[in-house]
Design brief:
With about 80 residues, the protein is mainly beta. It has a single domain, classed as SH3 type barrels (Roll), CATH 2.30.30.520. Helices cover about 10% and strands about 50% of the residues. It holds the Pfam family SH3_Rv0428c.
């Protein structure tokens, strides 16, 4: 099994990922597209913007499927 840091180092930029990081009091996830990486951090573009995550805080990371297509409205023609 590949470590989360090794996965992030090898994944192509633009890959849709979820990255779990350690924060005070627990954990948090960043879901989005891998946009940058360095020895100490990775950048993930989420719905709320670009976030930079310290590699030292990463506890899990994996590729995820593309987001589902938006559903049509329920109030369509009758």
């Amino acid at each position: 099994m590949t470590s989360p840091v090794a996965f992030l180092a090898d994944a192509p930029l633009g890959t849709r990922v979820v990255v779990r990081t350690r924060i005070p009091g627990g954990y948090t996830d960043a879901l989005g597209f891998l946009r940058g990486r360095g020895a100490a951090s990775v950048s993930v573009e989420t719905k709320r913007g670009l976030v930079t995550l310290a590699m030292a805080d990463v506890v899990a990371a994996k590729e995820v499927l593309p987001a589902p297509e938006p559903r049509g409205s329920r109030g369509g023609p009758r």
